[in-house]
Protein: ABC transporter substrate-binding protein
Organism: Paracoccus cavernae
Amino acid sequence: MRLFPTLFGLALCCLAPLAARAEPSLFAARDAGGETRRLVIYSSLDTGLARPLIEAFQQGNPDVAVVYEDLLTGTLHDRIVAESRQDGATGALPRISPFPRRWICR
C-alpha cells in the first residue's frame, strides 16, 4: 500500500519539469492584412483560463499577435529577474511587469 504514494510522488517529481517547459501559445493576429504587432505575456494563469481574456483583447486589437507563456511562478520570477538584468526589459519592449523595480534584487 505504501508503494503507490511513493510511485505517485516520484511520477509527479519527474513530470513537474516538463510542465515548466511548456511551449508558448501563439494567438495569431485576427487582421493579418496590415502590419502585425506582437505582445508577449509571461503568466502563471493556465492558458485555458487566459484564452477568453486574450481573445477579448484581440477583438479590440486585431493587428496584435499574442505569445502567451504559462510558467510556474518560480520560473516566471527567475525569467523576469534574468531578463531585467540583461537589458532592462522582459519579453518585448515596452516592459510591463507587476514587479516594481525595487522588488527585483540585483
Notes: Residues 102-106 have pLDDT under 50 and may be disordered. The first strand starts at residue 25 and ends at 27.
